[in-house]
Amino acid sequence: MALPADTTLGAIRLNAGDRDSLAAFYEGTVGLRELDGRNGVAALGTDEGRPIVELAAAPAAPPRPSGTTGLFHLAILVPSRLELARALRRVSEAGWRFTGASDHLVSEALYLRDPEGNGIEIYRDRPREEWREAGGEIQMDTLPLDLEALLSELEHEESRASEGMPAGARLGHVHLNVADLRSSERFYSEALGLDVTVRSYPGALFVAAGGYHHHVGLNTWMGEGASAPPRGARGLERYEIVLPGIAELDAAERRLAAHGFDAERSDEGLTAADPSGNQVLLRGASAS
Questions:
Q1: Quick one: which of 32, 89, 286, 288 has the fewest CB in 10 Å?
Q2: pTM of this prediction?
């Protein structure tokens, strides 16, 4: 049973060795603003109050070892090409280096890493009517992005806009390093109910709800059979999948149990780990 079409992502939580320094980066360079800082967790988002990145203070946390599963990147979706150009300017003027820039056919994306090595994508979607399908898959690729053409968007501004992330920016997808694509597909597609949208990309699998190109990307680029990092290591603690309501959350709990996956219910929602140890919090849209 597929997840409802209006399924979205919530916030992603990272274990931060230096929470304050990392929060300053996400504010000054990425353009988020701190919304809350209770219980050792700094929540950062936009002026409309939607958390996008949460930073959990973990000063004793060991770095994530290389070659392990975990976060490949978190992806912040901005609402327009102009906002992507503003993000390019903002990061550049902060003195931070990009690690890449790509045209994925369905989207245009900028890539960088935060000071603790977590991958970040900032991207904008092309209109859905411009997406193409072939062989039952959404067509995606990794082509060079024309940065000069992107920056030309800024020529149309009459005055310099606010340097923060705009209202409407949100966590568009997460991309994870996993140990095995088949077991990951069993968890994310067969048990959770996300649809496979692309399986022909080398070493990767993309899944989504509602016909989106992907809410979750999965890859074995750290190596088949990669081990999980130590519990509590820096980097990904969890990310959220937001379902329309409690009935859908209950159904997801039943499907996970039917497929043999353990899940823990709490006031926050339903927490489960994929076969590679990446934790996801499923919650109903009405849950705080």
A1: 288
A2: 0.96
